[in-house]
Predict the structure.
Amino acid sequence: MKRTLLGGLAALVLASLAGANPVLAGHWRMDPAQSAPLDGWHKMDLVIGLEGSQVAITHRMQWRSTKLEATNTFDTAQPVSLAHMFRVEQRHMAVYPARSGVTHATAAWLDGGRTLRIAAEMPVEVSQGDTVMRIYSEYRLGELGDTLTLIELHSSRNEPLVYVFHRINAEEGK
Amino acid sequence: MKRTSYLVALVGVLVWGVAAPRTWAELKLPARAAHIGAAAWSIQFDSDWRVVGGLPEKAMVISLQGLANRLAPQLYIMQAPDYQWEIPGPLYEFYQRRYQVRFTEIKTGAAVLELFKGHAKGYVVWDPQVSSSLNVAFTIAGLEDAVVVTADLIPLVEKARLKQIDDLRGRYTGQADVQIYQDAYDRYWARCNHDAVMLMGGQMGAVMVPAMADIGVAQRMFFEALAANPKYPEETALERRILAGVNRDGYVFGWHPYSKDTEEQHVTLTSTYGLKMEGLYNLPNLSFNCLFTVTPGFKYANRHSVARDAQLTPGPKVYISFVQSDQMGLSAWTSPDRGKMPFAWQVPMDWSLFSPAALQYFYESATPNDYLIGGLSAPSYMYPKHIPADRFAPLMQEAGAMMQLLDLPVLEILDNSAADGNVGNADLPKDIVDRYYEAFPDVIGFVNGYGPAHTRDLRDSRPMISYDYYIDPNRPRDAVAADMNELIALNPRRPYFLLVHVRETNSVASLVAMITQLRGPVEIVPLDVFLKLAASAKTYQTCFEYPDEVKHFSGFGK
């Protein structure tokens, strides 16, 4: 029985790994000219790490001289609960992470591993109290592997936010 | 002809009985007058403020302006069309129209010197290689009745038979600012006016715009541009020593040095000493403006849309109100589109002391859609979380008196000490909110923040509402509309009260167009109506600064 379970789990992990495109891993820098305008941030880099079924997306943000680094780790094999999920927020809006709020998120590989889909339900605090923002994101790898497009749709916003990134090497990413 | 006019003006001064104010405290006394029909002179500046270009002559004229305007409002400086402040031109016209001031234009700095040299006892030479030496020269100018010049201008002042009082060339070569200002402090501080200090910061490089120096010279202030930044501990220590020496209820004129600290850091420090900040470093003509009262019979009257004691019942709508709080007179007021939508404007209340005519100009040119509110946090710009506890009530009493004089039933509060520019923590802890409610029983409400914040409350009929949105002037308008629509979606109860802060460089026309993209049962209302509606339906959560809320800058301690 145990062997069967372990076997099944291994198959699941292998299946999720099989979906991952290793080219997605690495450093990416947002191209402001091709992207939705950031609000309250000037720069955004992503560092994507793949390990097993886990996908770690590190955001390196800059506002004036302020730098912030935050990592969200998702799992394509199972849903995750994140106590402090980072969101590329429009910082001039009074929308804050809800205190004690936990974000539930699922992740999956699509399009033969070229697209990472993340669906998250994130509690946020607004003027009228706490509410949940559904955030649907796709990270789409370009055909040549040198561009990454993030499309983010909020349940509260009709217009998707589209950010285009170009690959940079680790040295440039420092 | 000019000399004749000058004599007429001097006689006029004697007839009006305007005494020469000797200290800031004296200036607070009723020595001002309406100066109806006064003769005065003006000069048009261009936009060249380069140290190696137009600055030296401008600095000379500004120092002379401070000296000439000690006796009476005599010299007014017009700025180029692209100048940061928009007020000099309209106010020039207003003085002529409402005060019947008869301006004679002077074409050159040399002509200004010739006309007003009698107010100077000599000159002091500053060193363009050491930009801080200009501030030291301004200090000396106030104390010794001197004009400030560079070496190139010495022949001009010598020709005017002015004698050299001091020469700073070489004195500060190679020295750091802290050494320069320490030396100046040791030499001059004791003799300076201690009711105010001139923080002549702003740009401090190849371009400097010390247009506010006139009031500093006129009032014999100590000029400096020290940092309030832990990164520069020696400078900050000297700055603290200077601020500690300013008299209770005193002012810090000017602005922080952009290259060495932030607005948030410096206002935090000035507030720590209970001092009021009056900016900016490039605000011209205060020595002229402060000698005027309003015209006879004028009374400040706001454009109210609702009675103070009214009770309004909101409908199932999204109520939006816009507030502009970046110092009236900087821009936007002269936009031809002003008045096309309801707007609240934060009045620099201490201009009732320093620029009554400018306030009168704003009040008389307000449209029914322009509602004026008090600010910022106090009689002038202060961060309440850092005001000493024993100074809070007296300062707010002073603010309350100004609000009464200026017919302002709403107070705007801003404490950006923990914020990161216009993002981050602009919230107030409950004890500060308690103090405001206690200090202002007669307001119809408070607004809070600069960037967004979540401090909200309602006590009796006085709501305190923070900005739910800040309109970055660089943000595309469709993105602004999308942001506001998202806020509307995230706050589904109706009524929803959406308070918006508008940076002064936003085009009013672009906002008029943007609001057509908003979705839902939206109604744009004047701020007094907004607050009255918010007092009747509390659909917002009471909230204060959380104890563990992120502080970008935690302050200087005691």
Q: What stands out?
A: Chain B has two domains: 2-289, 318-536. Chain B touches chain A at residues 420-424, 451-454, 456, 466-472, 475-476, 478-479, 482-483, 485-487, 489-493, 496-498, 539-541, 546, 552 (CB under 8 Å). Confidence is low (pLDDT under 50) at residues 1-26 of chain B. The two ends of chain B are 58 Å apart (CA to CA).
